[in-house]
Amino acid sequence: MIRSVQPYLYVIYSLILGLFIVNTFVGNDVVEYIVGLLAIPMLGLSFYGASRLFRILGSIFIVVGLSMFMLAGLPWTQIPYHMTSTLNLLAFLTVLPWINSVVRAGLYDRRINDLMKGNVDHLGQLYMRSSLTTYILCTFLNLSAISLSQGVLLENLKNMKKRVRDSFISRTTLRAFTLALIWSPMEIMVALTVDITGVSYLVYLPWLLLTSFIVLVIDWLWGRKTFSNVEYEGNSVMSTESIELRKVATPIIQLSIALMTFLSVVVTFGNTFDLDFILAVTLVILPFSFAWALMMRRVRRFVQIGWKTWKLRTNGMQNFVVLFVSLAFFSNSLNETSFLGVIQEPFLYVSDTPLLILILIQLTYLLMSMIGMHPVATIAILGEIIQPLLEIVNPLSIGIVLITGALATASVGTYGVTVTMTSMNTEENPYRITLRNMPFSLMFGAVGVLVAFLLL
């Protein structure tokens, strides 16, 4: 029976999350309780289709959460109220495919990918182009950009030795992915940090862009030096193409204008109706994407691509449903006990040395990623732990490390989606990808800590 329901999960998720969003404006306790009740079977249905790693994480959160719930002596009737605090994140993830779809409808992905098809003499030259292409696409397409870029590179480098090709692909795409997302308003870690610290996204933006630019330039120089001695043996057709600058520059400029417009609408909408950042982005994405498609006169293509992509992605959200719903129960139960104070002790102990706090946050992400803990789960726990520190240490500094620390793990998390996807595409051992990108991850984290420290 559960298997027969799986193709219609998008309907179930949409109804529950839609009711949750409506109630954020209504604020009715009865509706909140109903949403919490519905979240329980939603968790059960999703558990069936989730991967083994997320089942384990979800089970741990539920078991530990139940233990804390009983220890706090709370009545069982209160459980539904403990299930809804992370549903805004699920709603956020549900609408993201629509902005990806409008980029595809406008053929921006194909035009920008031409950057990787120009004439080059060695891989050092191609490194910067590949990194820049992935960086631009990731801003709007998120994970989809990795598949697109890796697909083009696999074709372009099919005449290269596998060891060289795999090394090149895992460096350029994963590193550009992490650097593009640290300032993207569509990145869940950014949205979460804005809400946790209470610092405006516009305050974060220039510092995140600066961090991204510094690390990107370092990586380009690093990659150019590493691969400059490797002659480019690409596809004979693609390697002789010349880039028409105007054809590539136009979509980049258009995407930049669209992004600035999107940010303006989100900030204005959020301030006008006093909404948190995650909810503001969630509510703006769909109408903004439709308006964008209308301006391009590609509404029909947008709807076709969007509907298909949305159904597919929403039906495949079991991992995140299991993670977020179980995490909500765990976090809310934790707050009802004295254990939170125990976990906070190491951070409060070094509160007189802000640099140590920043480093501790960074190391927590790295260690948790090595055992398969998703950064969202880590930041949810850290968000509770660091609340007292926000009055002692500049919340902007803490927020920058929360973001850079989380995204730095994207290139090294052996059990993470990005590394696993790259491993499948290149048929390479994921542990080798982790080891190869570890120096970059540490450097990225160090730059994030340095920028945060200078802002203390």
Automatic annotation (TrEMBL):
<keyword id="KW-0812">Transmembrane</keyword>
<feature type="transmembrane region" description="Helical">
    <location>
        <begin position="6"/>
        <end position="26"/>
    </location>
</feature>
<feature type="transmembrane region" description="Helical">
    <location>
        <begin position="132"/>
        <end position="154"/>
    </location>
</feature>
<protein>
    <recommendedName>
        <fullName>Citrate transporter-like domain-containing protein</fullName>
    </recommendedName>
</protein>
<feature type="transmembrane region" description="Helical">
    <location>
        <begin position="174"/>
        <end position="192"/>
    </location>
</feature>
<keyword id="KW-1133">Transmembrane helix</keyword>
<feature type="transmembrane region" description="Helical">
    <location>
        <begin position="316"/>
        <end position="335"/>
    </location>
</feature>
<feature type="transmembrane region" description="Helical">
    <location>
        <begin position="277"/>
        <end position="295"/>
    </location>
</feature>
<feature type="transmembrane region" description="Helical">
    <location>
        <begin position="248"/>
        <end position="271"/>
    </location>
</feature>
<feature type="transmembrane region" description="Helical">
    <location>
        <begin position="438"/>
        <end position="455"/>
    </location>
</feature>
<feature type="transmembrane region" description="Helical">
    <location>
        <begin position="33"/>
        <end position="50"/>
    </location>
</feature>
<keyword id="KW-0472">Membrane</keyword>
<feature type="transmembrane region" description="Helical">
    <location>
        <begin position="355"/>
        <end position="383"/>
    </location>
</feature>
<feature type="transmembrane region" description="Helical">
    <location>
        <begin position="56"/>
        <end position="77"/>
    </location>
</feature>
<feature type="transmembrane region" description="Helical">
    <location>
        <begin position="395"/>
        <end position="418"/>
    </location>
</feature>
<feature type="transmembrane region" description="Helical">
    <location>
        <begin position="204"/>
        <end position="222"/>
    </location>
</feature>
